[in-house]
Design a protein that fits this description.
four-stranded parallel β-sheet; 10 helices; 9 strands
Length: about 300
């Protein structure tokens, strides 16, 4: 190849990239955003509180698992992919299936989040729409991610949202099902308005390999009226579906506690949180915790 040809190819690549970034991605997002009906975070909280509803959440990692791809929480697993597809396709009374609100609207997201979701949808939009029924109402999978991706991080706005979020477990007995080092609500006051807390600790990665044992243990330990809150990746998405069918209220609650800690820290980017596993910054081993109040809450380990 001559120098002139090489130069022309580089110029062509440059313009193709500019067209992709500045024309194709925005136009595709604009079209995609009209394909699904996803309610916002505050509507999602209101729905949960009013109906004592359960939730199963789908984000980028759940769609990876649905496509039988590995991620930080689960290795490729066809059974998990099949179960996630079932959750999307079969409607269950009192279970709200949640998708990222960014699928429909990016107005409240900061520049980093807007860029991420536009590129993600440009790459994965066809797969998402092929596997997600369009003729139903979805709620917001990102209702638990209220701080770090927010355009407006003002204390007043975020605190107002947190006050609404805490109504979900206000004066409720909680059964928390989480990864070994997640420690949801430990060391902070996010859950201080609950009546009681019991915990079942599960593997932090590949928890789905223990799915039957986890589900059986929850049903053995859950008491009438308990609110089951789960921070266990895509495994929690399926657990909420199965538990709701048997009459439990089960929330796939995700990263709400991590977001709360970042808010209290005033963090401007994702940072480690002492004493907690934070997968998004590569902290999967939080070390020992000898706090007796926390240890007394642990009723089962899987």
């Amino acid at each position: 190849m001559s120098k002139a040809e090489d130069k022309m190819n580089k110029i062509a690549d440059f313009f193709h990239q500019r067209i992709y970034v500045h024309i194709h991605i925005p136009l595709y997002y604009r079209w995609f955003s009209r394909q699904l009906d996803v309610r916002n975070g505050e509507e999602t909280i209101g729905y949960i509180v009013k109906n004592r509803a359960s939730i199963s959440r789908f984000g980028d990692y759940e769609y990876m698992s649905l496509n039988d791809e590995s991620n930080n929480f689960n290795r490729s697993n066809q059974l998990l992919a099949n179960r996630l597809k079932e959750v999307l396709e079969k409607e269950v009374p009192n279970l709200a299936v949640c998708l990222p609100h960014a699928f429909c609207n990016l107005h409240n997201d900061n520049k980093h989040a807007r860029t991420f979701w536009k590129y993600y949808i440009a790459q994965k939009g066809k797969f998402i729409l092929a596997n997600t029924p369009r003729n139903r109402i979805y709620y917001d999978a990102s209702f638990t991610r209220f701080y770090m991706d927010a355009r407006d991080k003002s204390h007043e706005k975020i605190q107002s949202y947190i006050d609404k979020l805490r109504m979900i477990w206000d004066k409720r007995n909680l059964l928390i099902v989480e990864g070994n080092d997640s420690r949801f609500g430990v060391g902070d006051d996010l859950l201080s308005n609950s009546l009681s807390i019991r915990r079942i600790l599960c593997p932090s990665t590949d928890a789905f390999l223990k799915y039957d044992e986890i589900l059986t243990t929850i049903k053995e330990e859950a008491k009438k009226g308990d609110l089951i809150m789960m921070a266990l990746g895509a495994t929690a998405t399926v657990l909420a579906y199965d538990l709701t069918k048997e009459g439990y209220q089960a929330l796939d609650i995700g990263h709400a506690d991590v977001e709360y800690c970042w808010f209290k820290m005033g963090a401007t980017h994702k940072v480690p949180i002492p004493g907690k596993a934070v997968n998004e910054v590569g902290i999967n081993d939080a070390g020992e915790n000898n706090d007796q109040a926390y240890l007394s809450q642990i009723i089962r380990r899987i």
